[in-house]
Amino acid sequence: MNYRKNEKKIIIAIPKGRILKELTPILTKVNILPEKDFFNLNSRKIMFSSNNKLVDFIKVRSFDVVNFVAYGGAHLGIVGLDVIEEFSHEEIYAPVNLRIGICRLSVAEPLKMALKDDPKTWSHLKIATKYPKITKKHFALRGVQAECLKLNGALEIAPKLDLSSRIVDLVSTGKTLKENGLIEVEKIMDITSYLIVNRNMAKTYPNKIKKIIANFRKVVNA
Fold first, then answer.
1. How far is it, in rounded angstroms, from Cα 14 to Cα 47?
2. Cβ burial, residue 179 (10 Å; 0-12/13-18/19+)
3. What percent of the chain has pLDDT over 70?
4. Which of 83, 117, 179, 218 has the highest local Cβ count within 10 Å?
5. SS3 78
6. Domains of the chain in sequence order
7. Burial letters 123-135, b for 16+ CB under 10 A, else e
8. Spatial separation of the C-alpha atoms in residues 153 and 60, rounded to whole Å
9. How does pLDDT run across 29-67, given as a tens digit for each residue?
10. How many beta carbons lie within 10 A of that of residue 97, not counting itself?
């Protein structure tokens, strides 16, 4: 693994998308803000400087954040518990719950099916999801066999196209499910975003990383 031991700057991986709106106030209070171009939706840049000369940011997809941190491309990152649990990298730990990006990972099915369905009777399910590992583990604990089709998007149309009978996906308001004729029928887990850290990097740069962790924790607990 490439842990970039000679690098002096701390790299923080940030996910693209709506989470940035909730994350920006925290970064402001921690006083580690990326350069202006970071917030430009039309920018194709991936790496950005910050107001702290010892810290740079990279902006990648949420599923990539955990891998960049686990394999040493970044020292720290911010990502949802769903991604942390799906990948379960031993190389990372999550010391601070940032309490943003609040949602839940749930099972949803077509409304017509839900009217006569009872989750307690499930024995074998065909599910479309971005989270096959979490899904299989959840249902295995209930003695239910889950056959998972991994899709990275457009999960809501999978039942209509007979790719699956149900889906497992993140749910916030339920609006997207409703617009696609689905309804939430079972919650698997609550989700928030965490600050994650590469264990080896924390040993290589203990003072810098401990300070960043402490600052995030102080802001969140204030």
1. 10
2. exposed
3. 97
4. 83
5. strand
6. 10-101+192-221 (3.40.190.10), 103-191 (3.40.190.10)
7. eebbbbbbbbebb
8. 17
9. 999 999 999 998 888 999 999 999 999 999 999 999 999
10. 15
